[in-house]
Design brief:
The structure holds two protein chains of two kinds. By secondary structure, chain A is mostly helical. Helix content of chain A is 81%, strand content 3%. Chain A has twelve helices and two strands, in the order αββααααααααααα. Chain B is α/β, with parallel strands linked by helices. In chain B, strands 1, 4, 5, 6, 7, 8, 9 and 10 form an eight-stranded mixed beta sheet that branches. The chains are: A mainly alpha, B alpha/beta.
């Protein structure tokens, strides 16, 4: 009894550390961000109601940034995932070279962004006059080059652990490679595929760093993301608009997560 | 002077290069930045944007400061935007065109006395071009020794950039015409670009030499006003200036510091570039231990005239940098035309002002 109590106290104490960290470094700043979003400005703490949210959601550049973020995100993550899938199959086919292949796949992520961007700028001759489709392609290619390797590693790990006898049995039954992939392999690695997509999404949100290094504060319109809007508003001392934009994005993410959670919950109940 | 009233307050000068640290400390208030040193051409954050966001105090609110302005020349146009007086200048640099009188006599050009127009400048360009075609030697019309942009584009920006109204006029016919003129001048070999602040003996043969500087640097050289027209009616004047962070908890001390800074006693003891000559009715002999040449009365008069008709030389830093690094080289190499230059500038300005 005494030992159980001691163990429970230890567990609570151990759990308290990350909880306090989460509160201090995430929830409290998020709360402060929301507070700023309801103030007139960083220099005038008069309550502004929802005026800042109205301003942000009526601003054409915030909406442009949001739509570009979603469009580009879908494009980048989809193609990065497809590339990762191909790379993982390639690695699976040549297992003897798997160790080397995985090191090579992870190398782009370790290269500092400044070096990678300088190389890309030279290769694609990036400047403000570059045609938008070339600029878009260059940034997308950089994202895929940098991040597809990590997703490939996750998928390779999942694929290499699939029981071979199921694949053999399916092949014996006349299953084509495509059918094998879509009906057996992919459904079995769905959780890991979701993890790979999650990682790609996380990396995608950080693509702003490379975009900023390539194009500066004001890129071509097709490359203008919400992060540009927020960074530029911060440099203009408009903390209220940064906070409103950040608050809006946070609420969108919470909504999407809740929606996914509800759908998954319904699915499990149906099962 | 300051410490007589506030003996326990220390004045600490900090140099911060990262604009995000500046933005954070200004917005946070607290024990961060009380007074801000503004230097628009090197700061990612424009003084105009700082003023628009409410980060800088409008000094017109303090009658005791406004009274001190009466002791000075009419120079505060260079630190006033849309009627808001936002800073006290530390140094003032303005554009005067230095004339090579020998070359002027050679080509038979009557040096203008007072204001002259951009059309007269174009006429002068045609005269120099004709001279170059017929004479054995080549002379430049203008040696451009400016930071980032040539004078005409600084002037256009200063006259047309309105951060409060969200307007930049880069797509106007006047701006396109200026670009066309600049391209033609370069194609005709009439412009020489330099960065060195050269003495006359070191310069190539250029009829006019344009650089932005403080009064002592103009010395007794023959100088004229830059050309102007309806679109460039005010002269851009650049200043490093001191402003008050409106979030400071030490507002009273900051305002008093500005009073001391703007007092005649302090102005007379300033860094050599404004050695008391900002004070009305005082024209002290500038100490020639620290400056190159004596300043002529004519140049002092020109200087004061420009100040009276000045606007701040404003920068939307990222846009000026893009124009300098990418657009001007592409224009001068013939890769893009003036219309495309203007369209790209307009797009960038729309973003910067419309966010």
């Amino acid at each position: 009894m005494k030992n159980r109590f001691k163990t429970q106290c230890k567990l609570i104490a151990l759990g308290a550390i990350p909880t306090i960290g989460f509160l201090a470094f995430y929830l409290v700043p998020l709360g402060m961000t929301f507070k700023y979003s309801f103030m007139k400005s960083a220099f005038d703490s008069v309550p502004a109601g929802f005026d800042n949210y109205s301003y942000v959601w009526e601003n054409e550049y915030f909406l442009l940034g949001l739509s570009n973020l979603l469009k580009m995100g879908l494009f980048c993550c989809t193609f990065a995932f497809i590339t990762a899938m191909h790379l993982s199959f390639l690695t699976l086919r040549h297992r003897r070279l798997a160790g080397l292949a995985l090191a090579v796949l992870l190398l782009p992520l370790m290269i500092p962004s400044v070096c990678a961007v300088n190389l890309w700028k030279k290769v694609f001759e990036i400047n403000i006059l570059t045609p938008p489709f070339i600029a878009f392609f260059a940034l997308t290619a950089l994202f895929i080059w940098k991040c597809a390797g990590t997703a490939a590693l996750i998928l390779y790990t999942a694929l290499s652990q699939l029981p071979q006898d199921i694949m053999d049995a399916a092949s014996l039954d006349g299953c084509s490679e495509m059918r094998l992939f879509f009906s057996i392999r992919f459904p079995m690695i769905r959780p890991q595929a979701a993890l790979a997509v999650l990682f790609l999404s996380m990396f995608y949100f950080r693509l702003y760093k490379e975009s900023y290094l390539m194009f500066g504060l004001y890129p071509p319109e097709q490359m203008y993301l919400v992060q540009h809007y927020m960074n530029n508003q911060y440099l203009k001392m408009n903390a209220q608009y940064v906070s409103a934009a950040a608050g809006s994005l946070a609420m969108i993410c919470v909504f999407l997560f809740s929606f996914t959670f509800v759908i998954r919950g319904k699915r499990y109940r149906l099962c | 002077m300051f410490h007589i009233r506030y003996p326990n307050v220390s004045i600490v000068e900090r140099r911060i290069d990262d604009p995000r640290i500046i933005a954070t400390e200004i917005m946070a208030g607290g024990e961060g930045i009380d007074l801000v040193g503004l230097q628009d051409s090197f700061m990612t954050i424009s003084a105009a944007m700082l003023l628009k966001s409410g980060a800088l105090v409008d000094l017109n609110q303090y009658p005791e400061l406004a009274q001190l302005k009466d002791n000075c020349l009419d120079l505060f146009g260079c630190v006033t935007i849309s009627g808001k007086w936002y800073a006290v200048p530390e140094t003032i640099d303005e554009h005067l065109f230095q004339v090579d009188t020998t070359l002027a006599a050679k080509i038979g050009w009557q040096i203008p006395d007072g204001r002259w127009s951009v059309d007269e400048f174009r006429e002068l360009a045609r005269r120099v071009k004709k001279w170059n075609e017929t004479a054995a030697e080549h002379i430049y019309l203008l040696q451009d020794d400016n930071y980032l942009l040539p004078y005409f584009f600084h002037a256009f920006q200063a006259n047309h950039l309105d951060v409060f109204a969200g307007r930049a006029d880069y797509d106007s016919e006047a701006y396109v015409e200026l670009l066309r003129m600049w391209k033609d001048l370069n194609d005709s070999g009439l412009i020489c670009k330099s960065f060195n602040r050269m003495k006359p003996s070191q310069r190539p043969d250029a009829l006019l030499y344009d650089y932005r500087s403080a009064l002592p640097d103009f010395g007794e050289y023959t100088c004229i006003l830059p050309p102007d027209d309806d679109e460039l009616s005010k002269y851009p004047v650049y200043s490093c200036a001191l402003a008050i962070n409106s979030n400071t908890p030490h507002l009273e001390e900051a305002v008093y510091f500005m009073r001391c800074y703007l007092s005649p006693e302090a102005l007379r003891q300033q860094f050599y570039l404004n050695y008391g000559y900002w004070l009305k009715g005082e024209a002290p002999e500038l100490d020639t231990r620290y400056i190159y040449e004596k300043v002529s009365d004519e140049n002092r008069e020109l200087w004061n005239y420009v100040l009276k008709n000045s606007v701040p030389e404003l920068y939307l830093y990222d846009i000026s940098r893009v124009q300098y690094n990418a657009l001007f080289p592409a224009l001068l190499e013939g890769q893009i035309g003036p219309e495309r230059f203007a369209a790209v500038s307009r797009q960038l300005a729309d973003m910067a002002l419309g966010e």
